[in-house]
Design a protein that fits this description.
It holds the Pfam family TGT. InterPro entries: TGT-like_sf, tRNA_ribo_trans-like. By secondary structure, the protein is an alpha/beta fold. The protein contains 14 helices and 15 strands.
Length: 360
């Protein structure tokens, strides 16, 4: 699949969506994002509706209008954030067939599959993700099957709510609906999840769960199992997959959508991604070690007059030197975070351009 159409136009695939958790990609604005040729952003359903509020988003008409973004968008279900927030605070989200009960800012909330979809329609995003029951890395095969059972139960309810919401939908192109494949590292559980989701019917599948193997490497085996058992007309979404070499590997398997906090978070910490090439034309993402990192705060860059990379045409690389960026990070000026983020976002859009020939 080389492209899809959304209410915001044609989306070339594969595509990487940086995290705009609270309707902002930190340190940059919508114009900056667009100029890096980044096609879309991922917004966080839970954070937006708890911090901004449904009435406010409705007043604007969509999250696009709220943040002045004309590109494509993905919204997550909010489920993973519930688990993450609970874990960070030493709490435990209460999970039942009804939904997920959790505490946020001292208030108790119940997130159901229906509410998650309804909230995402309020946001007006182009690609929506259904609520799923996360299979933890430490789960046993029996526990994994239980998460699959609940994931399928929630997926069916999500699809019904999606069809209900479409009756009042005014855009010419319906949002894509992505279901999440759970089951951990257990093939039988993953296959059961895929088969159950196919009976319900979706526009694509997401690689759910924790994608890192026990040895700390990316779990290509599970990624491949999902890809091989997914119809060719389905989107394959690598949820949270963001290391450049992992993205390349997944594109070869058929994955077309990716999101991750890595490029923007790393940029704000002075870690810049660079291609090991002399020009954009010389980039070869099929070669081992096709990229490396620059740690901007290091003293050795203090007087460097060269740009971050000759294999990049971003605003940062065409206007500023490594020495100047080094200075900005030393004095902790906010311009440092903006320029570094711009560069990393362009690195990823160039990565997607180079991966287009690898996709099936």
């Amino acid at each position: 699949m080389k492209s899809i159409h959304t209410s915001h136009g044609k989306l070339a695939l594969p595509a990487f969506f940086p995290d705009a958790t609270r309707a902002v990609v930190r340190a940059v604005d919508s114009t900056d994002i667009s100029q890096t040729k980044t096609p879309g952003v991922l917004v966080n359903t839970l954070h937006l509706l708890s911090e901004v509020g449904e009435p406010t988003i409705k007043a604007y008409g969509s999250v696009h209008k709220f943040m002045n973004w004309n590109g494509h968008s993905i919204s997550d279900s909010g489920g993973f954030q519930v688990y993450s927030l609970a874990k960070a605070k030493g709490q435990k989200a209460a999970i039942s067939n009804e939904g997920v009960t959790f505490t946020l800012e001292g208030k108790k909330f119940l997130l159901t599959p229906e509410l998650s979809i309804a909230y995402q329609f309020t946001l007006g995003t182009d690609i929506m993700v259904v609520l799923d029951d996360f299979t933890a890395p430490e789960d046993t095969p029996e526990m994994a099957l239980k998460t699959v059972e609940r994931t399928l139960h929630w997926a069916k309810r999500s699809k019904e709510e999606y069809k209900k919401q479409l009756r009042h939908y005014r855009q010419s192109v319906s949002p894509k609906l992505i279901a999440v494949v759970q089951g951990g590292a257990f093939p039988e559980a993953r296959l059961a999840c895929i088969q159950g989701l196919l009976k319900i019917g979706f526009d694509g599948f997401g690689y759910g769960g924790w994608p890192i193997s026990e040895d700390g490497t990316f779990d290509y085996k599970t990624a491949e199992l999902i890809a091989k058992n997914t119809p060719s007309n389905y989107l394959l979404y690598g949820l949270g997959i963001g290391k450049p070499d992992d993205i390349v590997g997944c594109v070869k398997l058929g994955y077309t959508l990716f999101d991750c906090v890595l490029p923007t978070r790393d940029g704000r910490h002075g870690r810049l991604y660079v291609y090991n090439a002399d020009s954009i034309e010389a980039i070869d993402v099929t070669q081992s070690g096709f990229y490396s990192y620059i740690a901007l705060p290091k003293e050795k860059y203090r007087s460097t007059k060269e740009p971050v990379s000759n294999a990049c045409d971003c605003y940062t690389c065409t206007n500023f030197s490594l020495g100047y960026l080094n200075h900005l990070f030393k004095i902790k000026d906010t311009l440092a975070y903006r320029l570094a983020t711009i560069h990393n976002l362009r690195f990823y859009s160039i990565l997607m351009e180079n991966c287009s020939s690898l996709s099936t």
